Prior knowledge:
globular; Rossmann fold; 7-stranded parallel beta sheet; alpha/beta; homodimer; 19% strand; 3-stranded mixed beta sheet
Amino acid sequence: MKILILGADGYLGWSMAANLFSSSHDLFLVDNYSKRKHMKSLKRYPLLETPLVKKRIQNIKRKGVTKFYQLDCSKYVDIHKIIKNIMPDVVIHFAELPSAPFSMINTTNSWETLRNNLQSTFNIIHSLKDLSPKTHLIKLGTMGEYGTPNIDIEEGWLNIKHKKRSDRFLYPRQGSSLYHTSKIMDTDLIWFYTRMYGLSCTDLMQGPVYGLYPNKKLDDDVAPLFTYDDIFGTVLNRFIIQAIMNQPLTVYGTGNQIRGYINILDSIECIKIAMKNKPKRGELKIYNQFTEQFSVLELAELVRKSLKKININVNIKKVKNPRVEKENHYYNAKHSNLKKLGLKANKLNEKMIIQIANYCMKYKSNIKINTIMPKVKWK
Amino acid sequence: MKILILGADGYLGWSMAANLFSSSHDLFLVDNYSKRKHMKSLKRYPLLETPLVKKRIQNIKRKGVTKFYQLDCSKYVDIHKIIKNIMPDVVIHFAELPSAPFSMINTTNSWETLRNNLQSTFNIIHSLKDLSPKTHLIKLGTMGEYGTPNIDIEEGWLNIKHKKRSDRFLYPRQGSSLYHTSKIMDTDLIWFYTRMYGLSCTDLMQGPVYGLYPNKKLDDDVAPLFTYDDIFGTVLNRFIIQAIMNQPLTVYGTGNQIRGYINILDSIECIKIAMKNKPKRGELKIYNQFTEQFSVLELAELVRKSLKKININVNIKKVKNPRVEKENHYYNAKHSNLKKLGLKANKLNEKMIIQIANYCMKYKSNIKINTIMPKVKWK
């Protein structure tokens, strides 16, 4: 199979590619390094400065084709040409600005998030509809599209009964950042083109991801990006870094914000399951891609307890929430579809947290502690 | 009051301005003439080549301030500066590409519709939140955002009961063109910023508009644009033009597509009602802005019968539907909120159709009959 991975330099994109290195598929990787550029300009750095994709590919010897193209998916001519040349069986689309705080810094970054994400999705889908409508498009969405409604969150779709009549709709969504709003729009856009032109698309509503991608064959030369800062990091990675720096684990507001989390190992597995379950023409499949629900406070508590076992003793500290979001809310999100298709969850436990901490400690001297406390405020 | 009208050259924008000329409000008009440019490049022309806004303003003598700025609302610096200088009490935002067929011509026009509409709304709302958050933003949406669901269409919001719990959501929407999808995204964007920053916004879900704006004081020098072509025209205007050219009234597909229609007189009245009913901070008011539901076939039949009275005899002809849309569907859309606030509908009748036809006949020699049959196909 020819698999085109867009956004292959990122935490998820590179982990996905690295996983597929052991397969016989032909891999075509694309990135424009925009996340690296934005991180640099905001003085945020990953734990480990991993080499560029081209260099990382050279570090790996494999049989199937592996090609890298440095290009911007939000430039129509470029992505159109790549799709025309490759005619991929599957496109996995990670090529988006992934940060809620980044999208709330100022007008420039807000618009850049909206433009980049929508224009990339638009270009990819327009190229597919014109050139290769049978290609399976797999797109990373986010659980954050749903927000925190007072009813159960279903998997993408909702049957609504109203005044004795009924219909099926995309689950009504409202996010708590402009980034999340851009992903809501992405879903609307993909669903529009899927039903108009009979495309085959999968939208994966993913919760915050954590963990390492510990492919035993991979060493540091080919490790994926690991971020922990206030803008590009995700919460569990951040807590672990705070702990190993002997800083209190900072919880925003009450800490009662509940989300669905997923280990990056499972995240990759989910995408592979999606690949094996191609939607029929005109169908948009939506899966909720997470394995466990936690409140932020529970997560902090779990990190605190786990790392105590290796003699790291830290407190949990509540700080003023820089975001505008509900801090006490109902949350019950369905996530059974991927399980039914074979996902075996790697649940979060003490051992796993210690493993991540041990990895991070190897690079302790790289940690920039002043990039952890939240600088971006919604208001 | 200081009223800023964005998109003041258009059918609705100029009609709104012309109505307010008899008030004492200070009027600030903005347009970049992009619709005229797009029409010209696609060889579509209005019934009457009306003068540019500046010239039309000169033709009117009035007491209050009336200023025109030629600028593009999708350019942040320009619209930000205007809002900073004026600090308007109300912004009425018509500054969008309004055509479903235009948005489906090709990749360039599709993206241009999405970009222009979203970027304009984004710039306006970002300027307001930073400079003038108390300003009332009134935005023209479209009934087409709802599509044709199998349940009743409520006014913008829907209370959903699900598994014994309930919550209130934006009514779930899906449109049948990229233009309509861009308006869905507009609504999501406005609702996001309204609830985040306590703005006061009104979104008017308007049905297809028809008719003249017959301000008795206005002569041809200041008349609004009247379009009837396949790309920029609306359906009733198109039928009337076909009839006076002795052409059959062309109905797309079965003609059973039902929509809610509104006379431009009422459309202007609705916006004035919205102005008088400013939402409180953090509230997005949504009204369904139409007065009567018709199927396309009923509309054609009404035109045929009405114009028979003035000895115009035409047939109705079904043509292959160039669009992808449901041709037989349930449709029951609520539209009582504006009525409750005082709207007295000008219902469509024979007299009104004859009046529009008589106006159009004055310019019969301008009519370009080859621009009426649909050239843009969804597939």
